[in-house]
Amino acid sequence: MGQQPLPLRALAANVLMAVENGQSLSQCLPPALAKLPANDRPVLQALCYGTCRWYHRLEGELLGRLKKPLRKTDRAVHHLMLVALFQLRFSQQASYAVLNESVEACRALNKPHLTGLVNGVLRSAEREGAPESADDACRFSHPEWMLEKLKHNWPDDWQQILEANNAQAPMTLRVNARRFTRDQYLLLLDEAGIVARPTAYAPMGIQLEHPVPVDRLPWFADGAVSVQDEAAQLSTGLLDLAPGQRVLDACAAPGGKTCALLEACSELEEVVAIDESADRLPRVQENLDRLDLDATLTQADAADTDSWWDGEAFDRILLDVPCSATGVVRRHPDIKLLRRESDIVPLAGIQLGLLDAMWSILKPGGRLVYATCSVFPQENHRIIQRFLKQQDNARLVEPDVQWGRDMGAGRQLFPDPDSHDGFFYAVLEKPEP
Ligand SMILES: C[S@@+](CC[C@H](N)C(=O)[O-])C[C@H]1O[C@@H](n2cnc3c(N)ncnc32)[C@H](O)[C@@H]1O
Q1: What does each of the 433 residues of the chain score in pLDDT, given as a tens digit?
Q2: Which residues of the sequence carry a binding annotation for S-adenosyl-L-methionine (predicted)?
Q3: In order of start, what are the domains of the chain with their CATH numbers?
Q4: Closest Cα to residue 377, out of 404, 419, 409, 401?
Q5: CA dihedral sign, ordered 410, 416, 422, 425
Q6: H or E element: which one contains 95?
Q7: What percent of the chain is helix, strand and coil (3-state, nearest 5)?
Q8: Which among 67, 101, 315, 415 is placed 20 to 30 Å from 423, CA to CA?
Q9: Cα–Cα distance between 8 and 29 in angstroms, integer?
């Protein structure tokens, strides 16, 4: 007899175990989804994303309900109960179904001796309702260190940031300017019965009222639009592109911003797109192919210019550095579990190192746009301040824009439940000698 496939909740518990062990949802969810019939995949996805989003609150409740923590070898059952609590607190699923299916999943995880515990914990959770959250980390469902850092960095804004992190992000599109105007595409969406509105700041952006699968978007496969958050789209305008320029996208994968800049200016001399990740770089080519765009792709550590640079300086450089991604927690709630406080100082070192290296290959008269999807000043305006202190030939440009908060050395956007992600941008120019 063949092995029984694992029930959905047991799969969800295993995915959460993998996240706890350091894998991102985008790494460990697809293989689990592949084990399910197409109909069940959105349910597994919602369970995993939702449980990560509310992990710290649910964990607080679960620990309060257990007499003692489960043994390490029973950790999957701990996660199974978190998934069930997520459903009891945040879904419409009937509680008897949550209880029965969780007990069944516990058996499928080969832990029949724990079915009584699962049943007892979930029954009392159902009967007693959600407890009052003991502290802010539980209430806002964030790791303690992230909460404390946000309170410290943004004493007037931290609550708003945390609430936005827990909200569902909207689906936002970027219309390919080479194919359609934004108004033309809004009309196509209207004809397809998809309710949408133009974004406030990104000129080619459209925000959908409800997310839809991309294959419902008119002409998606033919490159009419891409899915890209509004804040990410703002990089193009800051680059001040013009025909004939040689442009570098130094940290390019998966290529959202590379494609956006190519769509915006069709007569650039060359666009060089670099990424150090061999796994991620092919995604840039896939996006270029779908949109029928061209760039020179190189897998390299951008900071190690000796290994890849041909000696011809760039007119424009986009430096979208690796960062804590704390501005996009709402889209990647696993960041709450994956990121550590101790990551931030090394990241800041990498960011400043990349900025120094990219500055050395920028043409005099050229422009560099520094970007992160972080809300920590340490990775944002403080990097720019540190850089300006050591580079007396760098000039900070104040872009003429309506969005974000002026930090004196770049602009900070906070995640907004009604629109864009959290991002940071700074624009630097190298004066002609
Ligand atoms: C924020 S993501 C870039 C997102 C991309 N610009 C977009 O809009 O689609 C940062 C990227 O930097 C890459 N990266 C990290 N360190 C790098 C380095 N030293 N050189 C080049 N790429 C690097 C990572 O692999 C990752 O793909």
Answers
A1: 446 678 999 999 999 999 999 999 999 999 999 999 999 999 999 999 999 999 999 999 999 999 999 999 999 999 999 999 999 999 999 999 999 999 999 999 999 999 999 999 999 999 999 998 779 999 999 999 999 999 999 999 999 999 999 999 999 999 999 999 999 999 999 999 999 999 999 999 999 999 999 999 999 999 999 999 999 999 999 999 999 999 999 999 999 999 999 999 999 999 999 999 999 999 999 999 999 999 999 999 999 999 999 999 999 999 999 999 999 999 999 999 999 999 999 999 999 999 999 999 999 999 999 999 999 999 999 999 999 999 989 999 999 999 999 999 999 999 999 999 999 999 999 999 8
A2: 251-257, 275, 301, 320
A3: 8-136 (1.10.940.10), 172-227 (3.30.70.1170), 230-429 (3.40.50.150)
A4: 409
A5: negative
A6: helix 95-108
A7: 45, 15, 40
A8: 315
A9: 12
Q: What are φ and ψ of residue 297, in 5° steps? A: -100, 135
Sheet architecture: strand order including 196-198:
196-198, 205-208, 172-175, 225-227
Is 323 a residue of the active site?
no
Which amino acid, 307?
S
Beta strands at 205-208 and 196-198: parallel, antiparallel or unpaired: antiparallel
Nearest atom, ligand 1, residue 323 CA: 1
Q: Does the annotation flag 421 for ligand binding?
A: no
Ligand 1 neighbours by CB, cut-off 6 Å = 232, 251-257, 274-277, 280, 301-303, 320, 322, 354
User: Token pair of 421, please?
Assistant: 């992600």
Structure tokens at 47: 């369970």
Q: Please enumerate in sequence order all residues whose Cβ is within 8 A of that of 348, keeping only pairs 6 or more positions apart, or say none.
A: 378, 379, 382, 383
Whether residue 301 is annotated as binding a ligand: the answer is: yes
196 belongs to an annotated ligand binding site: no
Q: Which residue has the tokens 């108004």?
A: 183
